C-alpha cells in the first residue's frame, strides 16, 4: 500500500537514486556533514519505506542485489595495491575473530536471558549465522533446519534488517567522535600517492564506458569460474566463493595493469553512487511496524547479541591494543576503522563492508573487508548450525 507500488520499477529506481543524490548532497552541507553519505542513505531508506512512500519488498530490489552489488567490487578495487592489501588484511582478520566471538557470546547470553519457546535453538542458530556472515547464512540455517513458521520468520527478518541497519549506522558514526577516536590507534587508510597517480584523470564518456565494460567482464569471468568448478562434480557449492573470485580477479588486474586502471576514470565515482543506492535498498527492508507488533522479545534478544558483539569488538580491540603497546608491537594495534569494517562484515556481510570503506574514504580496507566477509560466508552457516544443535 505504498505510494510507489512494488511493481513500478522505474519509479522505485528513481526514488533509490534520488536517495543517493540527496546523501551525496547532504554530507557536504553544514547541517549534514556530521553524518556520512552512507548514513544519510540508510536513514532515508528507513524513513521512506516506513512512511509507505516506497515498499519494503519489490522485484527491483532483487535487481540491486543481483546486479549492482557484484559490480561494486571491481569498481572499488580499480586502484588496489596487492602489497598494501597483504599488510592491512591481517589486522582486519584479527578484528573479525573478535566480531565472531562477540556474536557467539551474545547469542549464548541472550538465550539464557530470554525464552523464545520451542524455536529458540533455530532462532539462535539463525542469528549466529547472520551476524557472522550475513543474510545468506540466515536463510541457509533456516532451510537446513526445515524451519517454516512464516510469522516468526517474518518477525525475525524484520528484527535482523532493522537492528542490523541501525547497528551499521551507529558504528559509522563512531569516527566522528574525537573521544572515541583518541582511544584507538590512528592509521591512515586512504591510498597513498604511490598507490594512485597524483594527477587527476579526466572523466569522459570513453573512460566511463571502459570502466563499466571492465566491471561486467570481471563479474562474468568470476561467474564462469564458479560455473566450471561446480560442473566438476564436487559437493561444495563454489557459489559461496563468488565474491572471493570477483575480488581476486579485480586485485590481479589492478596489480598487473596499474597504468591501464588509472585510465578508467570515473569508475570509483560510479561505485560510490551505486553503493549509496545499495544502502538505501537494504534499509528499505526494515519494517518497524512488523517489528513492534510481532517481535518485542526478539527485539530484546537481538539487542543483547549486538551489544555483546560491539563490546567484544571495540572493548576487546582496546584491550588488545593496550597489550600490543606494552609488548612494543604498536604496528599490530587495531585502528577504529579496521574494527568497524570487521564488525560490518560480520553483521551485514561482504557486500556492505567494502561499500562503507569506500564511502568513508578508507580505500585500503576495501579488499580486507571483502576477504573477512567471504570468510564469514564460509563459517557462518556451520557455526549457526552448531549453535542450534548445542
TrEMBL record:
It holds the Pfam family DUF819. The chain crosses the membrane at residues 36-53, 60-80, 92-114, 121-142, 162-181, 202-228, 240-258, 270-292, 298-324, 336-359, 365-388. InterPro entries: DUF819. Keywords: Membrane, Transmembrane, Transmembrane helix. Coiled coil: none annotated. The keyword Transmembrane helix applies. This is DUF819 family protein.
Amino acid at each position: 500500500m505504498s505510494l510507489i507500488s512494488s511493481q513500478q520499477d522505474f519509479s522505485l529506481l528513481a526514488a533509490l537514486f534520488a536517495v543517493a543524490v540527496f546523501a551525496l548532497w547532504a554530507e557536504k552541507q553544514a547541517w549534514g556533514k556530521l553524518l556520512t553519505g552512507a548514513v544519510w542513505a540508510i536513514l532515508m531508506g528507513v524513513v521512506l519505506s516506513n512512511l509507505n512512500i516506497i515498499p519494503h519488498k519489490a522485484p527491483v530490489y532483487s535487481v540491486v542485489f543481483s546486479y549492482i552489488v557484484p559490480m561494486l567490487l571491481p569498481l572499488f578495487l580499480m586502484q588496489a595495491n596487492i602489497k598494501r592489501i597483504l599488510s592491512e588484511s591481517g589486522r582486519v582478520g584479527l578484528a573479525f575473530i573478535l566480531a565472531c566471538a562477540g556474536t557467539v557470546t551474545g547469542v549464548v547470553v541472550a538465550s539464557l536471558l530470554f525464552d523464545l519457546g520451542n524455536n529458540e535453538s533455530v532462532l539462535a542458530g539463525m542469528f549466529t549465522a547472520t551476524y557472522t556472515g550475513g543474510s545468506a547464512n540466515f536463510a541457509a540455517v533456516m532451510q537446513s533446519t526445515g524451519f517454516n513458521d512464516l510469522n516468526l520468520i517474518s518477525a525475525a527478518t524484520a528484527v535482523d534488517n532493522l537492528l542490523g541497519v541501525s547497528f551499521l549506522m551507529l558504528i559509522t558514526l563512531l569516527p566522528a567522535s574525537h573521544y572515541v577516536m583518541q582511544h584507538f590507534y590512528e592509521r591512515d587508510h586512504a591510498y597513498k600517492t604511490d598507490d594512485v597517480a597524483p594527477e587527476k584523470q579526466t572523466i569522459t564518456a570513453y573512460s566511463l564506458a571502459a570502466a563499466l565494460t571492465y566491471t561486467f567482464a570481471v563479474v562474468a569471468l568470476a561467474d564462469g569460474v564458479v560455473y566450471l568448478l561446480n560442473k566438476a562434480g564436487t559437493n561444495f557449492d563454489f557459489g559461496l566463493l563468488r565474491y572471493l573470485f570477483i575480488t581476486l580477479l579485480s586485485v590481479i588486474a589492478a596489480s598487473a595493469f596499474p597504468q591501464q586502471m588509472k585510465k578508467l576514470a570515473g569508475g570509483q565515482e560510479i561505485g560510490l553512487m551505486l553503493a549509496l543506492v545499495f544502502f538505501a535498498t537494504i534499509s528499505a527492508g526494515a519494517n518497524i511496524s512488523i517489528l513492534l507488533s510481532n517481535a518485542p522479545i526478539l527485539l530484546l534478544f537481538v539487542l543483547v547479541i549486538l551489544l555483546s558483539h560491539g563490546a567484544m569488538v571495540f572493548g576487546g580491540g582496546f584491550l588488545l591494543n593496550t597489550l600490543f603497546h606494552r609488548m612494543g608491537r604498536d604496528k599490530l594495534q587495531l585502528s577504529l576503522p579496521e574494527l568497524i569494517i570487521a564488525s560490518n562484515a560480520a553483521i551485514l556481510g561482504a557486500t556492505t563492508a567494502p561499500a562503507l570503506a569506500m564511502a568513508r574514504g578508507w580505500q585500503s580496507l576495501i579488499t580486507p573487508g571483502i576477504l573477512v566477509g567471504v570468510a564469514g560466508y564460509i563459517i557462518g552457516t556451520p557455526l549457526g548450525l552448531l549453535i542450534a544443535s548445542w
